[in-house]
Fold:
Amino acid sequence: MESIYVLQPKMNERNTGKKCGRRSALKVLGGLGVAGLVPTAGAAKKPSKADKKYQALLKARRKGNMPVEAWREALRQNGFSVVTRDSSRKVSFSNESSRSNWGDGSWNGEFETTKLALSESDCDFYITYTYDDIYSPDYYIDFEWEFTTKSDPITDAPNDLATIEWDSDDYLLDSSYKGDLVYDNSRGDSEGPSGVAFDWDDNQASSSEAAEHANDVDPTYKFGDYCGAFLTATSDASPEDERYFFFDLYHIETEFNIDVSIGITNLSVNPGSDSYYDFIVEDNGVQTDY
Structure:
């Protein structure tokens, strides 16, 4: 049977032990036929032809500063099958945020003053799920985000946190990649069996965008970045309608202690409550058999 790949919204649902919360979901329709074609968990994987081709396209993407649609079209033109999900929401940056501290300088969990200088922005997520062909165990998950605002976009200094999570029973992490201003996570684990986590220098990204439009009369500011992972599907993966990906972007205006732990069962960010961050943008995806 020919496989068909489409996207549609999905109501919140979760696999045992997985988080869903207020996230929406990506639904991928089609059988991928990966059983028996993957290495044993933990085994070192030699890069496949598909891996090398994808890596070459990543280099071209960085060199050419490709917008997301050009990146996706380049993947298609080079023989990859591409499934996408785009979503948008409104967020507000605060250029001033004061937290009440204990005597030793650590944050006591309370805000001393109300956030000021709010700057409304669109936050767009571009999720691109790529595979070589229907018989291949090689998968690539790409997470790109972009802010668009008419107001002064310059954010405060602490790096934001971007994460991608999956079930380690379904996928093995081969390697990860990151954009120009994305770095290995400095607040705990950066890679692990169930996901990846990265710092994003949103201050540099927003400052560069502001400088580029310094002389514009009515500027629109756009800034963002991307990260992703090379994955191999396991031979004992869950049914396709239970293979979730989770995408999170934590915006941080004032530095405080954050710990990211990436283990066998899940990726956890502590503290995880929304009240600790200026905002958290989330989305998730599920691969579903038609």
